[in-house]
């Protein structure tokens, strides 16, 4: 019997501010894409931000896969909207590994480091991205650009009728 093949390592980047309807569309699109790219469970890499990252982690688990988490800084949980923190806590507890960037506080520099670390650990990237340019160096568009520069196959997911919610 041949040895079991290693799982495909898939990372995620994407928007945190998705409407509830878009979250459902994105969840289904991610599940379909994970099945399309691998005939075996995947090993995901995520920062577990609200929105895309948490949807991705659940899809990986639903498909029988595992994931690791790259935390930008020790205070990262505090940057997540209170409504998403219990989900963050539950998903963090299910990670096979938690990595830290070395930054002491969250912010753009920590997020850039986390995104670059994520890319160093994956063979593929899924990007839930509306195609619009971001407003800082850790935006989804920047991570997609870095992945493409590194030759990491990147799938952009933005379902028809997907919308971003307005942040207060």
Automatic annotation (TrEMBL):
It comes from the Bacteria. This is DUF2493 domain-containing protein. The lineage of its organism: Bacteria, Bacillati, Actinomycetota, Actinomycetes, Micromonosporales.
């Amino acid at each position: 019997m041949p040895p079991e093949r290693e799982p495909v390592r898939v990372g995620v980047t994407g928007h945190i501010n998705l409407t509830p309807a878009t979250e459902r569309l994105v969840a289904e699109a991610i599940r379909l894409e994970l099945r399309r790219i691998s005939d075996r469970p995947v090993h995901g890499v995520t920062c577990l931000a609200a929105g895309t990252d948490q949807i991705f982690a659940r899809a990986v688990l639903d498909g029988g896969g595992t994931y690791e988490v790259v935390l930008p800084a020790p205070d990262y949980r505090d940057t997540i909207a209170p409504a998403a923190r219990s989900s963050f806590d539950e998903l963090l507890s299910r990670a096979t590994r938690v990595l830290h960037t070395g930054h002491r506080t969250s912010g753009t520099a920590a997020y850039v480091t986390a995104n670059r670390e994520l890319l160093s650990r994956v063979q593929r990237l899924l990007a839930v991205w509306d195609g619009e340019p971001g407003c800082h160096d850790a935006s989804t568009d920047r991570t997609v650009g870095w992945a493409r520069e590194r030759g990491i196959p990147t799938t952009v997911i933005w379902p028809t009728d997907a919308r971003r919610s307005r942040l207060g």
